[in-house]
Design a protein that fits this description.
mainly beta
């Protein structure tokens, strides 16, 4: 498994994900690194080499394969003839490729921050919560060249994954008279909740981190009295990549 370092790089909303990814890849010195680029279908996203941009033209959907210090592109436009060309990775020039796919993950929610409701101030819920996440994933691959002390150059591939989607899951929360308008018959107990919401995800390959907004449905007779029933909360999603 390749080595990754996590910097404090935060993604924006779904519409800003491509811009955020480009900033992450070009502005952060240590991001996820790959030994080679996996062959497959990619979207041509950006380059600082005008010659490559002119060669690619309008064919943004490409099959790409790395061969030593060069990339081989295969374009198969609809209704047109297939064409293949190679690009030697050079120092000072870079190519950013994009891979789009759907993502299914299991996350924990370490905490939920609940806005004030009635007489109860802001609450921080750290009870157990788990969520099943399904969304759109964008993997950006930044390919350039680095020079070793002996003068030899080799391709360098950095990657960052961003995503956005929906989640649902199960959890628990503390129920007491203060959060049920003094209606509960039990002094305090741990209630069972079902939650759902939306999240943006940063994927560092070893682990995933996300920002979420959701709401809870408390099950049981105290649900109709609970101050936070179907009220929004803000939280963090965290998961490990075990693939």
């Amino acid at each position: 498994m390749p080595h990754f370092n996590f910097l404090r790089c935060v993604s924006g909303w779904p519409g800003l994900l491509p811009v955020a990814a480009s900033t992450l890849l070009t502005g952060c010195a240590a991001v996820g690194r790959l030994p080679t680029l996996e062959p497959g279908d990619y979207q041509f996203f950006r380059t600082n080499d005008p010659a490559l941009a002119a060669t690619v033209g309008r064919d943004r959907a490409l099959y790409v394969e790395q061969k030593h210090d060069s990339l081989t592109f295969l374009a198969q436009p609809a209704g047109g003839a297939a064409r293949q060309f190679s690009y030697a990775v050079r120092r000072g020039k870079h190519v950013i490729l994009l891979d789009r796919k759907f993502d299914l993950d299991v996350f924990t929610i370490p905490f939920k921050a609940r806005p004030p409701q009635g007489p109860v101030p802001v609450q921080l819920n750290t009870n157990f919560n788990a969520a099943l996440y399904f969304g759109r994933r964008l993997d950006f691959y930044h390919v350039n060249s680095r020079q070793h002390l002996n003068g030899r150059q080799e391709p360098q591939i950095r990657t960052v994954g961003l995503g956005y989607g929906l989640f649902t899951g199960l959890g628990s929360t503390i129920i007491n008279p203060d959060v049920t308008n003094q209606q509960t018959r039990v002094a305090e107990y741990e209630g069972f909740v079902v939650h759902a919401g939306a999240a943006t995800i940063y994927d560092a390959r070893i682990f995933n981190l996300g920002l979420a907004i959701g709401f809870d449905q408390l099950l049981g007779p105290d649900g109709r009295h609970w101050l936070y029933q179907r009220k929004p909360w803000f939280g963090v999603l965290f998961g490990l990549d075990l693939n």
